[in-house]
Amino acid sequence: xxxxxxxxxxxxxxxxxxxxxxxxxxxxxxxxxxxxxxxxxxxxxxxxxxxxxxxxxxxxxxxxxxxxxxxxxxxxxxxxxxxxxxxxxxxxxxxxxxxxxxxxxxxxxxxxxxxxxxxxxxxxxxxxxxxxxxxxxxxxxxxxxxxxxxx
Length: 151
What we know:
By secondary structure, the protein is mainly β. Helices cover about 0% and strands about 50% of the residues. It has a single domain, classed as Methylamine Dehydrogenase, Chain H, CATH 2.130.10.
């Protein structure tokens, strides 16, 4: 689950159904209220997993574990509704895609699979779309990606 910047909406990835649940978040009580489910790509076959946001919450990224793709959604800044922007081509093969992250500069995206591969992407800041930019070894069964930001 990830809370969108602004703290009013939360999104949860549903692995077995391949969709994203959207919830209104009450900032006073912490209570979640279900809004809608949105398909992460190819339905249950996609295996929606890890979530990440970028551009101050303008885009949501979904690591689709089963079809080894990353789905990109724009986030409506007024309603928080998700609109599909695109999906990588699924060439991130070799295992289940388990995590996705956007670097602090917003220029690059990364995804890892449980087979030890880290896939690199160039990110279009205007559209949010990711374009493959190579891969490197990520060790033995990596599970997540995180960036430390020095202040």
